[in-house]
Specification:
heterodimer, A: alpha/beta, four-stranded antiparallel beta sheet, 7 helices, 10 strands, 32% helix, B: alpha+beta, 9 helices, 72% helix
Chain lengths: 231, 299
């Protein structure tokens, strides 16, 4: 599903964000990516959907080779993924419903299909009643749930979340995480970059720890290690 | 692209234009203002052209027959003139008409003509030329006709006017090109602003997996709407404005004995202006959108 081979990322200003990372994530897995700020985990996540390109090495996501992908193929790569952004990236001029249906419209889905899928995704995240509101009328937790609904509406095989709970209170964070595990139980591979020590420890999933651009730990039923925090 | 996507694109373009009211109105105003300037300039040059063309056609050759020739000979001369290739049209001035004209010219002094009749005058022809530039050649040919006494031709005026005409043509083409470039630049810059205000939106669409064209089309539709609405507004303003001015000119200048200035009627320019406006508006709107969105699609 996801395969990295000797991936190194150096930003134009000379910062080395990732160094020789090799790993493999299989279908149906639930993976936490942890590490202090600036460790390179966001770079790792961003490379999965080509917001950033690797400087060296090979990345394969859903059979797309990220390191040699053409500009034309990028949209199709992204359609096959559900992506939850820390900064939401909702369209401010569209209602909740339109934001979610947009993800289907770009794939030229049948209107019938759209009318069926969107309410289902909204129901799953518990926002059916706010379908006609605009993003700025919602709380942070609600917006994050809209993003989640948008990410899953076209049934992606891989869901990628970059600090999905970064701006939320503990209770809402836990709800979002529960949603993610539910989605995972339905067969979707889930990759979550996070800082939430409690949640990681509680869920006991695979943990990939990155520090200073180096893969320091990769264990099944892992814990959030002490070295993974800034403090 | 599937039909439902075309529908979506058009609907989306209209929706966006309505949702971003302020920017849409601002852009429409800029388009209308630029096209207005463009239109005013176009009308001025078109009228200049029209008037110099008129003037150029006016210098007419007058062919006077000898007074003593008879009617059959007059008819013969007329035929010969008409057969000349450089002649566009002829008009016969009979002795009687010439006499009346003379009377009119003398005005209060017409008593001078008392006791006289038209027989001392000669029949003449007013000849219009197909190409005034070749006037002198035609004059020579006409002078050679048997029974023609005198041929008059205001040569210098013709050459002066045709020189001016060429100059006006050159300058107006030059200025129209410059104005076209300037308006394209201004309009596409305004659209760039509306796109810039929504660059995040474009980015987001790209991150969800929208293809470049799927994102671009609604913006192009929006640009075309802005361009066409602006064009129609400019057309209405300039149409009514020009109609008013033209009516005034027609009324006021007719009273002056020399009606030198004649304006093209609104109706003769309206159709071509409307089409030109809409084509320019739509094209510039679409191109402006497509070009200014390009940068933001690179994610």
């Amino acid at each position: 599903m996801v395969k990295l081979t000797d991936v190194t990322k150096v930003y134009p200003n000379g910062t080395v964000a990732l160094k020789n990372i090799s790993l493999r994530i299989d279908k149906g897995e639930f993976v936490f990516v942890v590490g202090p700020s600036g460790s390179g985990k966001t770079t790792f996540i961003k490379m999965l959907f080509n917001e950033e390109c690797p400087t060296e090495g090979k990345i394969t996501v859903n059979n797309y080779k990220i390191n040699e992908i053409t500009r034309k193929d990028i949209p199709y790569l992204r359609r096959g993924l559900g992506i939850v952004y820390q900064d939401f990236r909702l369209l401010p001029n569209k209602t909740v419903y339109e934001n979610i249906s947009f993800a289907l419209q770009i794939t030229e889905a049948l209107p019938r299909e759209i009318r069926r899928q969107v309410p289902m995704a909204l129901a799953l995240v518990g926002l059916s009643r706010k379908a006609n509101m605009y993003p700025n009328q919602l709380s942070g937790g609600e917006q994050q749930r809209v993003v989640l609904a948008r990410a899953i509406v076209n049934n992606p095989s891989l869901l990628i979340a970059d600090e999905p709970t970064g701006n939320l209170d503990p209770e809402t964070s836990w709800e979002i995480m529960k949603l993610l595990t539910e989605i995972n139980q339905r067969g979707t591979t889930v990759i979550v970059a996070t800082h939430e020590k409690n949640i990681v420890n509680r869920l006991k999933k695979r943990v990939i720890a990155i520090d200073g651009g180096i893969l320091v730990r990769d264990e099944q039923k892992g814990q959030y290690g002490n070295e993974d925090t800034n403090s | 692209m599937k039909i439902r996507t075309v529908k979506y694109v058009v609907k989306e373009g209209i929706k966006n234009a309505v949702r971003n009211k302020l920017m849409t109105i601002a852009s429409i105003c800029v388009v209308a203002a630029t096209l207005l300037v463009f239109g005013i300039f176009y009308l001025v040059t078109a009228n200049l052209q029209y008037n110099t063309d008129l003037m150029q056609q006016q210098p007419e050759i007058q062919v006077y027959c000898s007074p003593e020739i008879d009617d059959s000979m007059v008819a013969q001369i007329e035929q010969t003139i008409k057969n000349n290739q450089g002649v566009k049209s002829t008009e016969t001035v009979t002795k009687k008409q010439a006499f009346e004209k003379l009377k009119e010219m003398l005005g209060e002094n017409k008593s001078l003509l008392e006791g006289l009749d038209e027989s001392f005058l000669s029949v003449s022809f007013i000849v219009k030329l197909t190409d005034p530039q070749k006037g002198s050649n035609v004059v020579k040919e006409l002078e050679a006709i048997n029974g023609v006494e005198k041929v008059t031709f205001p040569e210098e005026t013709v050459q002066g006017i045709s020189k001016i005409n060429g100059l006006i043509q050159f300058i107006s083409i030059l200025l129209i090109i410059v104005l076209l470039i300037v308006s394209t630049f201004i309009i596409s810059n305004t659209i760039k602003l509306t796109v810039f205000a929504r660059r995040k939106e474009i980015n987001i669409m790209k991150f969800i997996g929208g293809t470049d064209w799927f994102i671009r089309w609604p913006f192009i539709v929006e640009g075309v709407i802005i361009g066409v609405v602006g064009a129609i507004i400019a057309f209405l303003i300039i149409g009514f404005g020009y109609d008013t001015i033209q009516n005034k000119v027609d009324k006021d200048f007719v009273h002056m004995s020399f009606n030198m200035i004649k304006l093209l009627s609104v109706y003769s320019v309206a159709a071509q202006m409307l089409i030109g406006y809409i084509v320019v508006g739509a094209f510039v709107g679409a191109a402006g959108s497509a070009l200014s969105i390009r940068k933001h699609l690179r994610v």
